[in-house]
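Final report, Chapter 2: Outcomes

The project's central promise was a pipeline that accepts a single protein chain and returns its three-dimensional structure in a standardized token representation, suitable for archiving and comparison. That pipeline is now operational. To close this chapter, we reproduce one record exactly as it appears in the project archive, with the input sequence first and the structure output second.
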Amino acid sequence: MTDRLLVNFKYRSGAAALRGLSDGACYFAHAGELNDSLEAKFAPADPFSYARTLAQTLTELAIQRKEPAKYEPEEESAEYLSKLIREEDQTFAANCQRVGIFSGTKRPDNQPMWAYYCNDGRGVCFEFEWPRDVIEQFSLRPTFVHYTDQPRVHDRFEDMRAELLAVGDKHPDWTVEQLHKHSQTHEFIARWMARSMSRAVSIKHSDWAHEHELRMLSPKAGPLPILRQILKRVYFTRTDFPEWGPIMMLLHQLYP
């Protein structure tokens, strides 16, 4: 998603817009500060599925490479791995609560959003462009929200599989054994966890699907001083609110 310039929109009340323009910051919220009470809350998948998913993925990679090997889960290590994974589940869930979430949407003309977040139009909609250097400097990760009314069971081994297949596509000359060895490195595990946490904190109930949310994630919650680097346009529908004049003044003074 970061191969092209990423654009999203943020609906703000007059007071919130004025505060953000004054500070020059974008606030990345904790999951508990957002409007879905189930944000970043989920049950972990069956820990025994790790060995099965890894074996299936390695077998698929072997077939792609026309290697004869067929991988099977190692039963003798399954119990040890499942115990280790159960312990990691707690750490994973705790880390998801630390992620900073900056909620945006894909268009500036969503009428319910103007009503909900802009005090019935008495506010503005910011258009943001996120250049690659900003994303890389602050280790940000753009993520579309997935909406569902199904129970929230997060299988982070699906993300391990996706990351391993991506590495296989990037290195078609590597053998499956090389890929397997790479999957145990710190570099791979860090990318796997980043992918998995992004997905875990970007699932909302289908009641919110009208928001079409495209959010930006940071490693931890809090303000980032990036507004001047990403703000490109400001949309409005009304001017009859007290913050309108000060907002226009700040835009002219600080955001030419």
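Archive annotation: The chain is about 45% helix and 20% strand.
This record, like all others produced under the grant, will remain available to the consortium after the project formally closes.
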